[in-house]
């Protein structure tokens, strides 16, 4: 089934009651060439690119819950590629390029909106750091501008740039190609596109064990029985530590709650995505009109998909300082996800000490923007059995060698 103006018109004639299901609901087979653990955006994108780019014919995505029930559909949907270090900038820029053609590629409108991302500066030192990042971005061919306070005001008329503000705005970085996308559309779109290439998406199928023989993975135990797999990819985000432990691996990853909240719908009033590293808040407006607001992580480790009230308060007070006219807006919903945070705020993508067992995790607070890029490099890594060149710097053993890529500054979320 292809989405087009004609299929919409045809289905309108039958009151949209005859649309085909977006993906099948197959029973698990006894064996697959590749098994992906985790049906979030990254797992689904991996399966899609494995089928499309690498010609793998027998793939299963095993999801313990429903697809997109994890962080994929709990995030604040910010997409950008303006990371400081070459390794991260190259990886996130690959993802940005895939975003730019994604709706056409998967024939699903992911509502990718390049409205621009502002990272605010509140001090002279913020400005110096921003100038360094903008220069580094440009050297990597990434669009990046350094703005003064007046230019920020021109983009966001509601923002308070008065010098007497509690967090005075002295400038910002701006990535015009950044923006946001509809997160559940991304999960559904990849699921549908993967399914149409023969990938079995198996929901309500929890992986409970990873079987290894002679140092090589041979399959996984699940709540629906043992499934043989020649290769297994772990893409479990906040539960990566739990899944990797099934293979006897201890990851340098902490799982923390990260919260977000949305307001009642308003008429268009925020034009871009506005982030402030210093005050730990970010805000954009969805196409529906809701203000979408995100925070820094809750400092404790845990798996409950909720967070503490003090973080909400600590986020909303600076947002109101930045946008005083929003002070009377009512918040509608609040939720949390579990993010997998590494010591250098960069992902882990690559091989593991177990043969044919691969890992993709540690995207922490910033993996939504990487969804297509992560799937792309992980698919190639699994298919070839060696890291894709863009993923090579993000190997698990960098935490032993010390070759860390510190992106805490550009991650723009308090850790
Ligand atoms: C509140 C919040 C705001 C965020 N904002 C942004 C943002 O603005 N921009 C950005 O780039 N990133 C953001 N992120 C981060 C981003 O959402 C994640 O990095 C990214 O979605 C991780 O993708 P995923 O598909 O791997 O995760 P998930 O969607 O969590 O997928 C992992 C899946 O694995 C499944 N699973 C776990 N254990 C098992 C098992 N044993 N068996 C089978 N399946 C299992 C889970 O059920 C889950 O569905 C945010 C995160 C949160 C929580």
From TrEMBL:
One GO cellular component term = cytoplasm
The record's listing under InterPro entries reads: FAD-dep_OxRdtase (IPR006076), FAD/NAD-bd_sf (IPR036188), SoxB (IPR006278)
Q: Which domain of life is it from?
A: Bacteria
Q: Biological process GO terms, please? A: tetrahydrofolate metabolic process
Q: Where is the FAD dependent oxidoreductase domain?
A: 34-380
Q: Could you tell me where this protein is found in the cell?
A: Cytoplasm
The cross-references to NCBIfam families, in alphabetical order and at most eight, read:
soxB
**What name appears for this protein in its UniProt entry?**
Heterotetrameric sarcosine oxidase beta subunit
Species: Plasticicumulans acidivorans
Task: Give the source lineage, highest ranks first.
Answer: Bacteria, Pseudomonadati, Pseudomonadota, Gammaproteobacteria, Candidatus Competibacteraceae
